[in-house]
Amino acid sequence: MSGIYIHIPFCKQACHYCDFHFSTSMKKKDEMVIALCNEIKLRSSEIANHKTIHTIYFGGGTPSVLSINELSFIIETVYKNYTVSKEVEITLEANPDDLTKEKIEALAVSQVNRLSIGIQSFFEEDLKLMNRAHNAQEAMNCLSLVTRYFDNISIDLIYGIPNMSIERWKQNIQLALDSGVPHISCYALTVEPNTALPKLIEKGEIAPVDDVLAQKHFEILVETLENESFSHYELSNFGKEGFFSKNNTAYWQGKHYLGIGPSAHSYNGKQRSWNIKNNAKYIQALAQNELPKEIENLTVTDQYNEYVMTGLRTIWGVSLQKIEQDFGKKYKKYLLQQAQKHLEEHLLFLDDNTIQVTKKGKFLSDGIASDLFLVNLE
């Protein structure tokens, strides 16, 4: 077992672009914490051979809406029911408006040892467009405080925002660098169907997302951060040496993880499961010691597709030796056949028996992966 992901399904308000599962009502927060801890206990039997937990990750939603006592209660429940590594990475996703001086000081003496802060932009017009709960000044203030107490910090930024000029994007990157944080995650603004964003674009209240501009932002991002000694170790993630996210790295390398909370996903190499996306039903089921989840058994082809998809996004690439060892020669042969046109177009390269994306191909990696795994060879 590599890690435990804990989904905290609450937010102060709904961002226009977000399609993750959450509620803006905090009425069931106390009940949810109890339910999460009960699921943690009930699922300890899934961890065979006393496998050690190396990462605990609080995602959401907005995990920073939890009090220190609530966070500690959940963490202690993990420790009581699992074998936890002495070097465990415990990450809390947090929003700037939650990170007051008092909250930061309390977190600094808690078991949380890594913060992932949802800055998204340092500019007021971008934050308003996205309907973020914090403002630009809060973004700057929280980083000034957090860096005094934590070494292991990541911040999120979003590019491709309508009307975000090249210059403003460069300023966003520079402000992130000036803060001194050792890890930066950057995501393209995506128009998800079940969010407010497509409706606002349709009404003309927000300009359409410009994919060409987003690609230009991405190219500037990669060049700037690599020049500042950040490793572009995954499509959306950049880290200084020693500060790669252990949680996310385990996911991209196909290690097992347990997902706790409504909508959370789990993976054990052979199966994928996911919990119900309904807070009330989740709480009700756990109160009766029931696990409200669905399970999918993964075929060999599913497992191959998963490895190709995640591997191409990373600096570790897709190992031909692993493909042959885990899936067989026919999968290796198929992969090389499908990869050939992308190799010729210099979107992929083959080095040391490993297929990786080139700098030119990075922005297109998900599309390239789809050419390699949409098959059924069983």
Main sheet? 9 strands, mixed
Strand order of the largest sheet: 7-8-6-5-4-3-2-1-9
Q: What is the total tally of β strands?
A: 15
- Sheet-strand content, in percent, reads 15-25%
H/E topology pattern: EHEHEHEHHEHEHHEEHEEEHEHEHHEEH
Amino- and carboxy-terminal Cα gap: 28 Å
* Tally of helical runs: 14
Quickly list its features.
single chain, alpha/beta, three-stranded antiparallel sheet, 42% helix
Gist of the model:
With 378 residues, this protein is of the alpha/beta class. The protein has helices spanning 29-42, 68-81, 101-108, 124-130, 136-149, 166-179, 196-202, 211-227, 246-252, 279-287, 300-312, 320-327, 329-344, 365-373; strands at 3-8, 52-60, 83-94, 114-120, 153-159, 183-188, 231-234, 237-239, 257-260, 265-267, 271-275, 293-297, 318-319, 348-351, 354-357. The strands form three sheets. It has a nine-stranded mixed beta sheet with strand order 7-8-6-5-4-3-2-1-9, sandwiched between helices. A three-stranded antiparallel beta sheet has the order 10-11-12, with no helix packed on it.
